[in-house]
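Open question from group meeting: does this chain pack into something compact, or does most of it stay loose? Before anyone orders reagents, we agreed to write out a predicted structure and look at it together. Recording both the input and the output here so the notebook holds the full record.
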Amino acid sequence: MLTRIGLPLFALGLLIFAVVHVAESRRDMPSLPPPIQPARNPFPNTLAGAGMIEPETENIAIGSSLPGVVAEVFVVVGQRVQPGAPLFRLDNRQLTAEREVRQALARSAIAELERIMNEPRPEKLRIVRAQLEESQARLADARERWNRTKQLSEQRVYSEEEVVTREQNFHAAVSQVEKAQAEVAMTEKGAWEFDKALARAAVEEAEAMVRQTDTELDRLTVRALVAGEVLQVNVRPGEFVGAPASQPLVVLGSTTNLYVRVDIDEYDIPRFQQAAPARATLKGQPGQEHSLRFVRIEPFVIPKKSLTGQNTERVDTRVLQVIYLLEVEGGPFFVGQQLDVFIDAQTD
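Structure tokens returned:
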């Protein structure tokens, strides 16, 4: 009974289920609007490209010319800085100690120059003059002895050897007087001009070494060279940075005016016109258009690097980069934002 009635009913139920499932699967799915509407082309004949917002100075990647440990960071993201403002400083203890040593050497060189310039000392002058008087007295004694020896030499009072000895003593005394006179003259004249020049050069060298250390100390403090806004800070106190650093330690840029760097496919370059109107829309705001004003062309076609992430995007191509000034209306605008750029390619 179960086999004759139950199995046919079960088969009929499966058939009804199959028919219902096929009917449901053939029903048309309702069309849903996209979560974000795509950008609208404002021109009938257009040239499209991907754009990216950048500062008018471009992104200035700041690093350190010297390796070392970061001691202080003076800025935070979003802070506006002026030219010469300190951004961060490396540890300067070694150079500070070296500067003290070189300053001591400079003081020593200056003291040596002053000593040479103030020669002769009155005490030294009295000494050389006294030595001259002493040598003159010895000369007078040697002359008297030599004269007396010559007078008595004929009477055989002195031996021939003693006569020769006293004659040599006399000539030696004459030389001693001449030497003492030369020393007095040299002392009274003061230091030699070449010694003064050498002492001055030593002072200049020592002071130059101090200035060199000051320069190295100043280089440990990295400063901003242009006015702008701190866009990124990638360094913290206590971190070691190399020269060159593995990444920009601080990214700086002037955001007074915002530029848009547009990549134009090399196949579209013949259709591009500098004076053509251009519009841009931010990602996520397709209904809000922003005017662009042509600034310049960078006349160097490069491989495409800025990618939008679209599945249909070509990456094996080269692009011409065109810079536009973004007419800041609405917003918000941030450096690094991507835009869809449309350039009128209407030909007369």
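Observations to bring back to the group:
The radius of gyration is 48 Å.
The chain has a mean pLDDT of 85.
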